[in-house]
Every structure is written in C-alpha cells, then in structure tokens.
C-alpha cells in the first residue's frame, strides 16, 4: 500500500534490554514497549541467508509471503529486530539448537514500531550467542500503486525491500537469498539469478525457483512478473545478456543488447575482474519511477532509457540509452559487490557509476565524443555547488527521507568530477591500479571513503617504481587528507593571486556564485 505518515510520539517507558541498564523505549502499536529505540538495527543478530516465497495476485493487488531467515546471534538477546513496512505478520516461529542436538521451535510474539519501520520478534528465553537460528515468518500485504495491473516490478533502493519481506534492510547487512515466485501460466518471472526449475501447483498456478544469489544487500534484490518477451546475446566470457520489453516494442531493444554486451566485456577487461553472475537481464519497465536501477543481474529502466528505434529516435536518444546502460552496468562492479557502508557515502556508488559511463562509452563508441559531455557535467556541478548548497557529498543521513535526499546531483555529478580530478593528478595508471585494489579488497563487503583513499595511496609507489626518497614522500602523501576537503566539506575553493611588483600574495576562499565579500553573510560562508 502507499506509504502513510504516522505522527506518533516516543513514549518514555523504562525497559531493561538484555539485563542492561534501564533505557526509555518507544511504544509499539499494541501499547507494549518496543525493545529498540534506534533507527539502525541493533546488530545482535546478523543475516546469513533468506529463503523467500512470494505469491502475488495481480488482479487484487495483494500478495502473501513466506520467509525463512538464517541468522547468527552475536550477543545475547530476547528480541530479533528487523525492518518491515505495511506487512501484516500472520505467524512467526524461531528455531535454534538447544545444546542437546535437538532443535527448539518456538512461536514468537510480534511487536511493531511504525515510525522506524521496524518489527521485533520476542523470545521467552535468550538466544544462544554464536549459534545460528532460523526465523520463519508468514505475512500478507498490498502492492503499492506502482505495481498494479499486468506487471509487477520491484524497486527496493534505498529502503523499500522492507515492503516486500521482513528483512535486515541496511546496506552493510548482506546475505544470500533464494527466491521463489508463484505465477499464472501466461506470465513469466525473472529475478537476480537464473531460474532453476518450475513446479506446477494447479491448473493455472506455477512456482518458479531461482538459484541462490551471491551475498548482497537487500536493496539489490529484485523480481519482475510480466508478459514480456526478450532477445539475447552472449559475451565473449559466456555471460548471457537478455533485454526484455513489451512484445510490441521488442524490435527497439536490439541497440541496447549490442551496447550491454560490449560494455560488460569492456568492464571485465578494464577491471580485470570477471562478472560474477551467469546472466545479465535488462528490462524496459513502463512508467518506471526512476531512470534506471542496478539490481544485481536484473537492471531495470524506463522505456526511454533502454529502447531505441533507428527510424524515429534521435541521436540524443541513442546517446542517452548508451550512457544509462554504461552507468547501470558499472554498478555491477561499483555498488553490488563493493557497497558503501552506509548511505552517507552513496556517492561512492553513484559517483563511480556516473564516471565509468563516460570512460566505458568513450572507449567503445569514441565517435560519440562523450568527454565533451563530461566537461559540461563538471561545469554544471560546479555551478550548483557554488550556490551554497546545504551539504557536502558525504553527509549524515539516518531516516528514509534523509537517505532518499542523498540521491542528488552532488552524489552523481560532483562525485564523478572529483574522481576525474583524482584520476588526472594521480595519473591514469595509479588511479586504475588503486581502483582494482579497492574492488578486490572489499569484494562482497562494504567500504567507506577512507577505504578508497587508502587503496589509491597504497599503489602509488608500486605503480611509479619510486626511489627511496620518493617512497618516503608517498608515505606522507595523504590522499585522504586531500580528498576529504572535497567530500566531507561542502563547496568549492577559489584561489586568488595578487601581484604587487615582485611580491605575490595567494589566498583561498569559498567560491560562491551569488554572494560577494561586501554581503553580511560572507564571513560565515567562509567557515563552511
């Protein structure tokens, strides 16, 4: 169902969690104290894998779900806290070995706290530390308005996986997932991984089973139920690439297929890292809310971002399809395997993907002269940043509204441009080797700004064959210190050089487009 605004205040209830000190906890929907009072999950249980079954009814716009989650208990607790939004939990059980080689299965009490979009499953006895347990949940929910009709297409980024199934909906809480979807005979289902089998459950009811995913964040999981058709190709390394579209528009998908195959091959060669999945689907979704989405193995696009008709489309349309495809496929290296630790560093995902679309398209289609557009992008980003925008690229974001606001031109365009600057002053070879070091070191993990800067700093002398003196200098060449001024500090620097006969005076100011030194606001602006 559509998101609702709940105006509920925190109720000061004294509650002792895990035998610790008394802390004020909010009131859940049934009036009981909810056992957690933070926006981020407690970390006492960590997901390992999800086993998810969804049965959608596209006519009534209702779906039922069954989820079994394997979790590791990291600290003694009586509550497993997950994210859930607009899901009606009908039954919940937990199973954990009791130390006698037997499994205890216990029904759980369920509490909800709507303002934080969280649900807690309470146990009667503490869960054992360093042992896995299995949480089984049955639930029912409505599709949001965007999913009604003959098509169901998910889009979970940044914090909407919790509307499809109860989950640990934070980017650092990665897990494997096995997905099963029920459908009618006239529909097809595609998901992140290839389909491994189909069971016939009735005269017009089928259940598609998909291979287990790699370890990934919940916002990258996806499935689509439709009557689409597809065309396919294969990369030189054997990856099956398919483009899905409305049957009436399938002839407009051939250019995107050509681009996708070439760009995947380019990225594998450029990074020296194989694409880890056996297939890559690209889907043109009518009325898609975003421009595109990088779900791992199943990227989704607006029709205008993927379909190209040689007879009626313009040169600008062709460039747009090429660039968006390059962007989303770059995410299969930047974002999906190496994900930002938290949403404050979303620019690590989006800035890199934005920059790599220029690098990949320039290498494959030089006749498009996309480097001219990169300069336009950077000058436009500088112009916006000179308007005294309220935040730096990397800034605090905690609740879903703040997180969604991070997906802006700062994260995409300024992020791409400071990477372009970095590539030029470190040299192409250092930049390239540093990126490969970063991707390999943090694969299937999470990273933050400092991890990128460290990877770049670590390869400088390895690449440039430094002398002992140069090596000393590189040890004191602080990439993080330099780049933090561009990522955790807002705005742009303006260098002013004044010459008075033989003397030169140099000073630096915060460059502001519409505020001048005689403005009363000027001194305070120089502190940002």
UniProtKB/TrEMBL annotation:
<dbReference type="GO" id="GO:0070006">
    <property type="term" value="F:metalloaminopeptidase activity"/>
</dbReference>
<dbReference type="InterPro" id="IPR034016">
    <property type="entry name" value="M1_APN-typ"/>
</dbReference>
<keyword id="KW-0479">Metal-binding</keyword>
<feature type="domain" description="Peptidase M1 membrane alanine aminopeptidase">
    <location>
        <begin position="255"/>
        <end position="486"/>
    </location>
</feature>
<dbReference type="GO" id="GO:0042277">
    <property type="term" value="F:peptide binding"/>
</dbReference>
<keyword id="KW-0472">Membrane</keyword>
<dbReference type="GO" id="GO:0016020">
    <property type="term" value="C:membrane"/>
</dbReference>
<feature type="signal peptide">
    <location>
        <begin position="1"/>
        <end position="16"/>
    </location>
</feature>
<keyword id="KW-0812">Transmembrane</keyword>
<keyword id="KW-0732">Signal</keyword>
<dbReference type="GO" id="GO:0008270">
    <property type="term" value="F:zinc ion binding"/>
</dbReference>
<keyword id="KW-0862">Zinc</keyword>
<dbReference type="InterPro" id="IPR050344">
    <property type="entry name" value="Peptidase_M1_aminopeptidases"/>
</dbReference>
<comment type="similarity">
    <text>Belongs to the peptidase M1 family.</text>
</comment>
<dbReference type="InterPro" id="IPR001930">
    <property type="entry name" value="Peptidase_M1"/>
</dbReference>
<feature type="site" description="Transition state stabilizer">
    <location>
        <position position="412"/>
    </location>
</feature>
<dbReference type="Pfam" id="PF01433">
    <property type="entry name" value="Peptidase_M1"/>
</dbReference>
<dbReference type="GO" id="GO:0043171">
    <property type="term" value="P:peptide catabolic process"/>
</dbReference>
<dbReference type="GO" id="GO:0005615">
    <property type="term" value="C:extracellular space"/>
</dbReference>
<feature type="binding site">
    <location>
        <position position="350"/>
    </location>
    <ligand>
        <name>Zn(2+)</name>
    </ligand>
</feature>
<dbReference type="GO" id="GO:0006508">
    <property type="term" value="P:proteolysis"/>
</dbReference>
<feature type="binding site">
    <location>
        <position position="327"/>
    </location>
    <ligand>
        <name>Zn(2+)</name>
    </ligand>
</feature>
<dbReference type="InterPro" id="IPR042097">
    <property type="entry name" value="Aminopeptidase_N-like_N_sf"/>
</dbReference>
<keyword id="KW-0645">Protease</keyword>
<protein>
    <submittedName>
        <fullName>Endoplasmic reticulum aminopeptidase 2</fullName>
    </submittedName>
</protein>
<keyword id="KW-0325">Glycoprotein</keyword>
<dbReference type="InterPro" id="IPR014782">
    <property type="entry name" value="Peptidase_M1_dom"/>
</dbReference>
<dbReference type="InterPro" id="IPR027268">
    <property type="entry name" value="Peptidase_M4/M1_CTD_sf"/>
</dbReference>
<dbReference type="GO" id="GO:0005737">
    <property type="term" value="C:cytoplasm"/>
</dbReference>
<keyword id="KW-0378">Hydrolase</keyword>
<dbReference type="InterPro" id="IPR045357">
    <property type="entry name" value="Aminopeptidase_N-like_N"/>
</dbReference>
<dbReference type="Pfam" id="PF17900">
    <property type="entry name" value="Peptidase_M1_N"/>
</dbReference>
<keyword id="KW-0735">Signal-anchor</keyword>
<feature type="active site" description="Proton acceptor">
    <location>
        <position position="328"/>
    </location>
</feature>
<feature type="binding site">
    <location>
        <position position="331"/>
    </location>
    <ligand>
        <name>Zn(2+)</name>
    </ligand>
</feature>
<keyword id="KW-0482">Metalloprotease</keyword>
<feature type="domain" description="Aminopeptidase N-like N-terminal">
    <location>
        <begin position="47"/>
        <end position="220"/>
    </location>
</feature>
<keyword id="KW-1133">Transmembrane helix</keyword>
